[in-house]
Description:
This protein is α/β, with parallel strands linked by helices. Among the domains are: 54-106, no CATH class; 117-323 and 378-398 and 423-502 and 549-618, TIM Barrel. The chain contains 19 helices and 22 strands. The strands form five sheets. Strands 19-16-13-10-9-22-21-20 form an eight-stranded parallel sheet. Strand 7 (90-96) and strand 8 (99-106) form a beta hairpin. Helix 1 (3-10) packs across helix 2, helix 3 (138-150) runs parallel beside helix 7 (286-311) and helix 10 packs parallel to helix 11. The longest helix is centred in the middle third of the chain and has 28 residues, at 231-258. It is globular.
Amino acid sequence: MTDLHAAAAAVGLRRDWTDAAGRAQQVEDSVLAALLACLDTTPPEVPFLSITCGEPIHVPGGLTGTAGLTLEDGTARTLALGSDAIDVVGYHQLSVGRRRYTIAVAPARCPQPPERGWGVAVQIPSLRDGRASAYGDYGTLADAADAFGRAGATALAISPTHALFPADPSRFSPYAPSSRLYHNVMLADPSLIGAPFPAEASPDLIDWPSAGAARLAHLRQVYVANKVRVEAEVDAYEAENGPDLTAHARFDALHARLGGAGWPDWPAEYQDPNGPAVEKFAADHADDVSFFIFLQWLAGQGLASAQGSARSHMAIGLIADLAVGTDRAGSHGWSRREDLLTGVSIGAPPDPLGPDGQNWGISALDPYALQRSGFSPFINTVRTAVRHAGGLRIDHAIGLDRLWIVPDGATAADGAYLDMPGETLKNIVAIEAHRANAIVIAEDLGTVPPGLRADLSRRGMFGMRVLPFERDSDGQFIPPEQWDTDAIAMTGTHDTPTFVGWWQGRDLDWRARISGKPAPDAMQGRAEERASLWQALGGDGAPPAEPPLDNVLEAVAAAPSPLMILPLEDLLGLDEQPNLPGTVDEHPNWRRRMPGETGVLLDQAHTEHRLGLLARTKTV
């Protein structure tokens, strides 16, 4: 082993890895060297430990004897290292002589669904209600939650609600947020405080730059008209959330004034969040900063209202979605840039779904910075996500154990896996889920590390079994009745074709249109896949020409899972998907709207029939 290889191994950079096909791969030395240069491995002043309730405490170095324990509520105890256990969930302080440790104690298992049931996954902006609107908001979500709850749903999985870039609504991907610590204020509903809703066009495709700018201007009018009336509540919210909220609001106010793709494009004096230029700006534009604090408060109120609407009929309610990272040019990268990996982007190595690999163009929390900060950025991120939810879906949960990181300027294939403190991260998720009484769904698709699914199952975190991917070693579909019992059964996700679209080859049509090349082999392959799926569904003879949607819904609902989730697009039998991976402007990602308001759509005869199938099958 060379010095370079030893140095990489010491910091958790993996030179050797196994691809999705089981083939051994090796990272080039030049890639390892570039990634090593991006990591600051300075150790923490106060080490952070984590265990599960009932486990004895062990500290680094194998120290024995007695230790002082101060629980989160201030209660003091004395315990014996290596033998005594802690039975209180939370974040506690441990003293061993002059050494200090923070210790996170997780429950043995995450909360579980109280009953078998089904849920629907929705993209919030796609929803419609009785108002003419350019896109759906938290008020639309509350109406949809009420409608789905009355129809018998147990849960409503929603798109991420992380803070985006209100000053630049052209950046509307919910998976490339400015910050995961705050809300998407562009979805705030002014009617929640009795303010009028704007008169807007309601097209089938959202024009984000135009619609977002118009909505933000209207929200500013709402703020001006109501700020005195809600001042006490907003002030209390600001005091509760502290200087980090103020910094986020300053970022949004600065971005509205300075423009650009984010803080790296600003004049140097504004790139320091604690510098005198920013302080002067905040003083000179105090009302702008207050406006964005008001919007965060209003957005939080909207999410709370939506979860209240959901829980009035549902056992779980909203299932929030936690994106894997953030845009480095955003609020988190500006105000807390020490939290994030620098000089790299995260993505995925080459696999059958992405033969060239994937570079998502976003950054993630730095594992060494996490340890130095006592994991507070991750704790607060998860806590924010579950604050107004009964469940949490973790996008790319593989990233809890390892991240594929790519040096800036390199191709997606020229990356390497970086180990993450997975045991601690999963324990933190369990603690926050326990406190919120929220179930946890860990998206375990793609190149899954050995042992991850067993570890998730042991913790009571559900994996995802998604119809297009459930196949045997020969590529044949596995009947849903044989799927895992410790995973959520799903017909698809926001990144897969709808079932109708898949059956008809709509995704293949899009790929051919974008590439400009017909794909007869792909169409022939899809015909063979349809035959395989039809057989897995128990069908006789040749597969039907029309998509057997009802057969699929009934079969997936019968999977031995405690919860089935289907995209709203599948419940309605639509043929277009919300997002086509690997595209930016070539496909209308995150722009499609539903064909009608939710309550009306659920009252249609074919939808009522499918709801009946779900109720009869999943609740048995």
